Amino acid sequence: MIKAILSMLLFAVCISTYSQNSISGKLVDLETNQPIIGGNVYISKLEKGSITNLNGEFQLSNIPEGEWNMVISFIGYTTKTVSFNSPSENPLIIELQPTAIEMEEVIVSTPFHKLQSENVVKVERESLEDLRKTGAVTLAEGITQIAGVESVTTGAGIGKPVIRGLSANRVLVYAQGVRLENQQFGDEHGLGVSASGVESVEVIKGPASLLYGSDALGGVLYLNPEKYAQTDNTSIDASYNYFTNTLGSEANLGVKTSGEKWKALVRGNYAIHSDYETGDGVRVTNSRFAEKDLKAGIGFQDSKYKGDLRYNYNNTYIGIPEEIADQTTSKDVVSPYQQLDNHIMSLTNKIFLQNSSVDLKVGYLFNNRKEFEEGEDDPALEMHLETLNYDLKFNAPVWGNFETIFGVQGLFQTNTNFGEELLIPDASIRDFGILGTTHYHLEKIDIQGGFRFDTRHITTEENGIFGEPGYFQPIDRTFSSYNGSLGIKFNMFKNLVTRINAASGFRAPNLAELSSNGVHEGTNRYEIGNADLDNEQNIQLDLSLEFRNEHFELFGNAFYNKINQYIFIAPSEDFIEGDRVFNYIQDDAKLYGGEAGFHLHPHPIDWLHLESSLELVIGEKDNGESLPLIPATSLTNTLRVEFDQLKGLANNYAFVTLKTTGEQNNISDFETSTSGYSLVNAGIGATVFLNNLPLELRVSGNNLFNKNYISHLSRLKTDGIANMGRNISFGIQTKF
């Protein structure tokens, strides 16, 4: 398989062409026929775009032969998809309808790169720019602004996404177009990726095994990397943020340049924080953390081939808080702590054929996880996780109203231990999956479905002495599963979009669940795995309703998720060396609930926005007992104002948010109930110009009334340690 992949890469690199197909056109206002300046023109399947000039004109070169869809968007106008054939000699005249409805974006995480209004599967999308405005300290905190998404946290520096009550290995994270692997099985293992250099976040809520294979049983968090500069442009941007609660600083610098075919970028980010302070004025000892992040990329595109090579290095030191002790604002590293080094190398290739294309993505990831105990200079735990993954897809020629994709995916992975302690044994994993999916499009109805087969082979090495604590038995097992999905989107009435989806998913047990035999640091419990665990297998039903007009938007999402052989950890009556023994077991379970909300933006006062969203999840075993780590019901209300121009300022905004989280009394047998709380957040920002140099200024405040509270999803809850108190952040950014 590796030889086949390398052969295809060599073939891709050797492709050359002398064709210079181009497309040109002009954007005009439908009502006034005036040119639209600064409009966005984007061909999603080519990931190629431009911005209209002072005459509303645009031109894109190196367009492969065939039929393509171009997405046209601009603030204040309806987003439009236009089809054209390449080569084309006649310029396009594209008319846009003025509207108060906000612009749509192209969804990348689903296979056909549609606008959200054209997608059969509902995908939530948020730009990182909008998430930064909320003053979130980390990416994991920022994504909790998306309805249906929460985060399991260990202090301020560690957070894992929770989608509709499912987390850890049940939620896949994609970065740079490849599957992120960084020992994500542990609750205290964070994302391992920085928000720096990320343009937007897309969230698929529900089984996505058809597209992504094992571990996408609960959903997918897809991080879109920043785009390169526009053709024949060079840009430099810099930003700085300060956080009052942690006395933290974050600095960022990026450079991007693009020619006709070649393009490149590099970005560096450094963040450092002291121990955070709770609402009652107590600093949580050793919750400090520091992060260094470097991203770089080189891209090439002509009319036959598109390639994108990206690299990301992330280095993080994270303190492990255990109790309230020394009160200090020091940022020096103290034990116990984690040191994480994460390398991601990805190569994306797209070969354009006659009315079809071949996509090949290859990723190499190296994760070095070290944990240092108190008073020790050498790591007690050190694990090296190496992963090579591949994703090969053939976009078949369009037949009638059918778009079809066939593909194979897989990974090769090894885990090697170097420390004195073992959390999981030395092991290797092999994945292979084959899939087919098709999209059928009519004027008012879209249908999408597909089928997939996967197999995963896991082998682990024996370690220790049989019958004694810390013994790891050898494991040699193969897991396989068939999965599929079927969905339909239709317009029942004008402005009302209905989506109905049914999808199955699966997850093979991870190494911790199969083989653990020892004390899991930070949990104060002795965990014992179960080598006889079976696949988790689920089917989820989704119903989504959306109504949009120029004055308001309404949405409602409902889901029912039935999971067979749900794996969870439960306490026993046994103790080993003073720590209670927890065993991994299985039982059938179900989760159900949904999200609902509205967005009011009355015309003609389009600068005013009132948004509200409600999210509810209930998780139960078949015997009626509650599942652990289920988020409490929450209601979020936001009042936001936006002014494009105001007394020499641009991009002006201000917002106030009230998030109310209810009590959580539906708890597992080793959890305790959690009280409800309300948090008030607010922010303001604008762009000023100094000799034509734009300076974007932001101020935001989280938990403004300094509420002392504990989240049900905080791993520090068992120690009675509260979450972060009031935090004011100041940000400045410029681009030239």
Which features does this protein show?
single chain, 736 residues, mainly beta, Immunoglobulin-like, Maltoporin, Chain A, 2 domains, 22-stranded antiparallel beta barrel, five-stranded mixed beta sheet, 5 helices, 4% helix, disordered N terminus
Write a structural description.
With 736 residues, the chain is mainly β. It folds into two domains: 20-99, Carboxypeptidase-like, regulatory domain (Immunoglobulin-like); 123-735, Maltoporin, Chain A (Beta Barrel), CATH 2.40.170.20. It has a 22-stranded antiparallel barrel. The chain is globular.
CATH class of the largest domain: Mainly Beta
Portion of residues within helices: under 10%
Strand residue percentage: over 45%
What gyration radius follows from the Cα positions, in whole Å?
26 Å
Multimerization status: single chain
Task: Show unreliable segments.
Answer: 1-19
CATH architecture designation of the largest domain: Beta Barrel
Give me the count of strands: 38
Determine the CATH superfamily of the largest domain. Answer: TonB-dependent receptor, beta-barrel domain
The main pleated sheet reads as: 22 strands, antiparallel, barrel
CATH fold-level topology of the largest domain: Maltoporin, Chain A
Number of helical runs?
Answer: 5
Distance between the termini: 45 Å
Compile the SSE list and pairings.
Elements: H1 2-14, E1 22-29, E2 40-43, E3 48-51, E4 57-61, E5 66-73, E6 80-86, E7 92-96, E8 123-127, H2 128-133, H3 139-142, E9 149-154, E10 158-163, E11 171-175, E12 178-179, E13 198-205, H4 209-212, E14 219-225, E15 233-243, E16 248-258, E17 262-273, E18 289-301, E19 305-319, E20 337-353, E21 356-372, E22 381-395, E23 402-417, E24 427-441, E25 445-460, E26 475-493, E27 496-507, H5 511-515, E28 517-520, E29 525-528, E30 536-548, E31 552-576, E32 579-600, E33 608-621, E34 634-646, E35 649-661, E36 677-690, E37 693-702, E38 727-735
Parallel strand pairs: 1-7, 11-14, 29-32
Antiparallel strand pairs: 1-4, 2-3, 2-5, 5-6, 8-13, 9-10, 11-12, 13-14, 15-16, 15-38, 16-17, 17-18, 18-19, 19-20, 20-21, 21-22, 22-23, 23-24, 24-25, 25-26, 26-27, 27-30, 28-29, 30-31, 31-32, 32-33, 33-34, 34-35, 35-36, 36-37, 37-38
